[in-house]
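Hi F.,

I've been meaning to write this up properly since the lab meeting, where we talked about keeping a consistent format for the predictions we share between groups. The idea is simple: the sequence comes first, exactly as it goes in, then the structure tokens exactly as they come out, then a line or two of notes. No screenshots and no reformatting. I'm using this chain as the first example so we have something concrete to point to.
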Amino acid sequence: MPTSTRDARIPTLCVGALHAAHDAMIDLSLRGERLMTIDATLQAPPEVIGPVPEGIRVNFFVTGGSFEGPRLRGRLRTVGQDAFLLRRDGMGQLEVLLTLETDDGALVEARYDGIGDFGEGSYEGFLRGELPERASLHTFPRLRTAHPSYQWLQRLACVGVGSVDLLRSEVRYEIYSLG
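Output, unedited:
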């Protein structure tokens, strides 16, 4: 075998060995653990900014709610909002900021982006003042706190699945930590 061909395989073999060693050290499987359920009530009607270049901008303000899980529980502070954008394809982009207050008084910031499927025709319906009854939601929460008892929350990668009932102005999420 010519030297140039043999030498060209060495980096490939080295990279393959590095990937195998890396995979042996780090578990790449996906596992989840239920972190909490969030139930929120929203101000009705929402604050409609209206059509903007990207879609219809709507602000949903949190008026109350609670959260509960195996390791934390408490209430939602009434300072949260979802700066929501309904796209022309019926998909909604969520930008949510909430403050959670645990039963022992710790404050936790929950910030998440996500998507919601409001269905075909929902954009045109919204322009006519018609809210879709329900929508499924998928989010990616990040949690922050200064409280020493809840520092572990900041080490989590989370996903949320939920639904919104716009006729009742209620939202429910199941939040899972991955790892």
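Notes:
The chain has two helices and ten strands.
The CA atoms of residues 48 and 102 lie 31 Å apart.

If this format works for you, I'll send the rest the same way.

G.
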